[in-house]
Amino acid sequence: MDSQIEQISPVECRVRVTVPWSDVGPRLDTKLRTLGKRARVPGFRPGKVPPKVLERMFGKSARQELVGELVEETFQTAVTSHEKRPLTQPVLENSSLEKGEDFTYAARFEVAPKIEPKDYTGVAVRRRPATVDEAKVEAEIAKKQEEFTEIRPIDREADGARTKTQAGDVWTIDINGSIGDSPLNRKDVEVEIGKETGEVVPGLGAALSELELSAVGGTTEVSFTPPEDRVKAEFHGAEIKLTVALRDVREKIVPERNDDFAQDTGEAETYAELEEKIRGKVRQEDADVAEREARQRLVEVLLERNEFEPAPSMINNEVRAQVQNFKRQLARQGMSLAQLGMNDGQLAENYRGQAQFSVRAFLLLEAIREAEGIDVSEEELNAEVEEMAEEQGQNPARLRATMERNNQLLLLRAQMREERVLDFLMERAEVTEAPDPEPEPEETSEDAG
């Protein structure tokens, strides 16, 4: 077999292949004989059809079939011999398979662009200082309080005990009724008064907020219209009518924010110390975000300095992956694109710009990695897998085997390589610490006048 490669564009090649007739002829004869054994031709017994008749009746289809086989068998070998890595299947431009002549074909295919990175050190990069979002600190403390919250039976016979339910009480109920024309029946439903998130029946907690504690063991009738932003569109304006069996009620005891609470967490001796630790954690998380933002700006500058276009197939594959990932996220929430008023084509178009940036960034960072000889050793990869296994409470060997089967090990190595390249670039960049600029005020019609 003989082959030549022609570079049509930075991202497309043409391969021309020649296969000797001495290799092709016997295979074509075998195909025709096989067809002859099965063929039912009037005037001839099975297996006794003359070669000239077989050629006239089945020659064209046999040649077409053999052409497909030969292209499939020789394409990869041909392009590999020229050190090309095709991104797409070959698109056959022409082929010739004539009796007694060598078989030839030409096919196009896409390749990644060859990039010689330049001007990638000494880049001026701004990184904003880390800040502490007090709302996140408050949310973290509230989350820890939730972890140590107890749910206890209510002592309804103690002196001064309350008689009415209040925020934080947890009712266990059975419900039987309907929402609009649809039945609505559940058993062992827990409803926390004052908590809207995660309600089995949106609005039910509010409907039960005036209950007397003495109602336990009885039933009550409720009817209400659920909030539209928390139910499917088909139930907007529908009335919920329920018979509620009140089986039990307990109260939540939320720990106070004091030194005892801090000690119970096992993270601090005093509440002030716990609060400061949480503040430090929030600050570090914001510092990590600021670092990622700085690295993003660095890559944007490098892409401006290194102009190139990826192969269309790479962009399309990235768009497809992002669309599928978004649809999986929607499915986990019980939603679909149709509910958002979108289709696959519209979503793909929305993702195209981000996909192009992601592919260009990957190709440029990979070119820099190769230029600088940056890599991840097998020992470093194993250490990362072992750390992941420890965090997940898994056996390292079993986790590695699973990741190999799912191609996750290749992805992990690629991510580690990219981080190494970005570390290299940030170490050699001119980094300045400065806050994000204030957004410019929008110009009004009066300002324009």
Structure description:
- The termini are far apart.
- Helix 3 crosses helix 6 and helix 8 packs across helix 11.
- The chain folds into three domains: 2-110, Alpha-Beta Plaits, CATH 3.30.70.1050; 150-253, Chitinase A, domain 3 (Roll); 312-433, Trigger factor, domain 2 (Orthogonal Bundle).
- The chain is extended.
- It contains twelve helices and eleven strands.
- The protein is an alpha+beta fold and 449 residues long.
- 46% of the residues lie in helices and 19% in strands.
- A hairpin with a 6-residue loop joins strand 3 and strand 4.
- The longest helix is centred in the middle third of the chain and has 35 residues, at 271-305.
- The mean pLDDT is 90.
- The strands form three sheets. Strands 6, 7, 8, 9 and 10 form a five-stranded antiparallel sheet that branches.
